[in-house]
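Example 9 (inverse folding). The structure is encoded as follows.
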């Protein structure tokens, strides 16, 4: 575990880290064994994903960030540590869990098309011993930070009791807490200041089907319900090409976006 916290860090990022691996190649034929494309592999690259991508984006924006996450004890964890050390403005602590693999998503890409993704992961909750270690560590260093970002990819690190302890502690210490959710049940995030669902997650949290058309009024209505039900200060909904909408207790702000053509949207919400 790397325990060096960068000097003057003001942002703490907590959540599930992922190793994103991209396998680029060419498809020129169909397999004679089955009706599937044959990818001739050319190059392979590894990128920090999940909560690590959030931390990386913070650092790319010129801010200093400290990341706390969980990995397995494997080659993927070693690769992540190597990549994390190369990221400027970033310090980190990876708690090793020998009972689980490091989360890895391997994407196979031909041209601008992703043709297959293979996931290596365990979504079982971390054990109580590890949970207590992380809670204790976060509480011991909380005073160094102004903002706590919780990036939940629902891979087992952020248990209900861990989230409850950390978010209550943030509130008590008057630290700004921002949560990027991945669960339908937003009661996991009670006491968060800001929550950042995408439109589908906003509907799901309100027990609505995802075939409802995205509109400003829908965003406003369902955001207000979440604010009232879970005591959030704000709901920031990402809306793909429509940008983002920030609903606060007494105000609403819309932010436009500029669309780009991409072959992979992973991490776009971050």
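The amino acid assigned to each position is listed next.
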């Amino acid at each position: 575990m790397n325990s060096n916290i960068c000097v003057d860090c003001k942002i703490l990022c907590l959540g599930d880290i992922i190793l994103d691996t991209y396998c680029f190649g060419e498809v020129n034929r169909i397999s004679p064994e089955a009706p599937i494309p044959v990818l001739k592999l050319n190059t392979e690259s590894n990128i920090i994903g999940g909560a690590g991508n959030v931390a990386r984006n913070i650092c790319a924006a010129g801010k200093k960030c400290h990341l706390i996450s969980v990995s397995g004890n494997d080659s993927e964890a070693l690769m992540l540590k190597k990549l994390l050390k190369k990221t400027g403005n970033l310090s980190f602590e990876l708690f090793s869990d020998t009972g689980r693999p490091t989360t890895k998503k391997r994407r196979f890409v031909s041209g601008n098309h992703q043709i297959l993704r293979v996931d290596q992961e365990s979504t079982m909750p971390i054990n109580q011993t590890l949970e207590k270690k992380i809670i204790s560590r976060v509480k011991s260093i909380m005073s160094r930070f102004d903002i706590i970002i919780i990036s939940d990819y629902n891979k087992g690190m952020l248990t209900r009791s861990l989230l409850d302890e950390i978010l209550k502690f943030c509130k008590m210490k008057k630290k700004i807490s921002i949560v990027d959710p991945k669960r339908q049940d937003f009661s996991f995030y009670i006491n968060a200041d800001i929550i950042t669902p995408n439109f589908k997650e906003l509907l799901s949290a309100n027990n609505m089907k995802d075939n409802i058309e995205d509109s400003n009024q829908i965003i406003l209505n369902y955001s207000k319900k979440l604010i009232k039900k879970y005591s959030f200060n704000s709901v920031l909904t990402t809306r793909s090409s429509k940008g983002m909408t920030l609903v606060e207790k007494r105000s609403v702000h819309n932010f436009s976006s500029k669309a780009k053509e991409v072959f992979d949207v992973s991490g776009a919400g971050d």
